[in-house]
Amino acid sequence: MKKSNISQKIGFFVISLCLIATLFFLGTILYFITVRGIRSISWEFLTKPPSGGMTEGGVSPAILGTFYLTIGAILFALPLGLACAIYLTEYTPKNIVVKILRISINNLAGVPSVVFGLFGLAVFVKFFNFGVSILSGSLTLGILILPGIISASQEALTAIPQSLREASLALGASKWQTIRKIVLPSSMPGILTGVILSIGRAAGETAPIIFTAAVFYMHGYPKSIFSEVMALPYHIYGLMTEGTSPEKQTQIAYGCALILMFFVLLLSAIAIYFRQKQRRVQHG
Amino acid sequence: MDNVVHIKVSKVNFFYGKTHVLKNISMDIYKNKVTAIIGPSGCGKSTFIRLFNRMNDLIPNTKVEGHIYLDGEDILLTKTDVVNLRRKVGMVFQKPNPFPKSIFRNISYGLEVNNIKDRKFIEERVIESLKKAALWEEVKGRLNDNALMLSGGQQQRLCIARCLTVEPEVILFDEPCASLDPISTKKIEELITELKKNYTIVIVTHNMQQAARISDYTAFLYLGELVEYGITEKLFTVPENPKTEEYLSGKFG
Fold first, then answer.
1. Fewer CB in a 10 Å sphere around the end CB: N or C, chain B?
2. Range of the domain at B65
3. Does the predicted interface ipTM exceed a cut of 0.85?
4. What's the CA gap between A261 and A238, in Å, rounded?
5. What is the CATH number of the domain that holds B194?
6. Residue B227 within any structural domain of the chain
């Protein structure tokens, strides 16, 4: 009795220590980036292109580039992923083939992002001849986030009670009407949660865009989807590895990191809001 | 009584995988009457009425044999247009299942999927259905509120109203009061008695008193077999089959 009591206390202690350590790291990252980055942030930093050999000016082309790449990735991955999810949950029987398909999709999520980068280079840049461009980068990022969007959508769709589908069908609605008018609207908050988290992922990825879209510096802003772009994560990488005045560049890199982090945190907050909304729908 | 056969069930067998769920059931269901299906849990009551609107089609691994004629047409054929069938045979489920939409949109949904766009017509039909389902007085000022805000009993009447908009001939009730309190149950029972003037009603119920109160005919199903079927009063007072008597007196079930 006494012995088990002691081991329980030790157990709790170790577990809480782990939690504290995790929170400590999270807190330190937030603190560190904020303190170091905040000095760079100014109106000029957000709205002007770099100047003085990457040591002055702002990072607006990189912000814009990340924005373009992310939007492009979502425009590509959302319709495709949603269609896959609808097909897998609503139209296929629950058999072994579907199970294998599901496992394959989940495995796709585990492929290292640099591999997606190489794939993008071979297929979009070279084979389709899109070149190093917003289009190639968006498609590559799109494939990267596709599994996440499919799983999130599948989860949202399967969470819709069968009784709602039955209610709709019993009123003489076709299967497609039921999906379009009842199942999809009810699962929208859940799907959006997945989309938003994917946006965060796409915005922060560096490896997939190194070969397919990003450049360290370009003159002016991209003119079409076939232009190369600057992007925040790649810009950070460039600032830290190239150039001649490391101190000033490091300062700018922290500014970029802060913007990126703020952007992703904001998206997560929105995702949490939608998830709450989804819960309300499901539990009345 | 001038009884017109509305649904004719002929030698129906139903299999779920290898399980023989319904065994050779034949019975006539009469127009503008309330027919109650009673029996212990798992005897196949719900499965049985879900054949009338082909709801069992949604369950994989099932097989059905025999015929069910609605107005003389066999509805169990593969070529039967189930969408069309379900507009003629409405269903109210055990657990109220309103859509997470406004009260108005819940009721108008049946018209919406029928491609009816005339707003004035839709509005009139929604109000009419709510009145028929005895819900109008309670919701008239707040048709745009979310239907999930209503109480369980109100939700169930909403589901009945929703079913009425598509003007079915038959309404199937699958234990509609199973999750309701006694007052809500009473309202639904009164409503069913009112509705039979215009609709043929088939109700599955666990509650024998309920069957006795509201039905004209009662069928007793046991282990997938139709043990006895007849006029409710007679079945409850002088059952022919000893099994029926045992069940009614509470010896099993």
1. N
2. 5-99+169-248
3. yes
4. 18
5. 3.40.50.300
6. yes
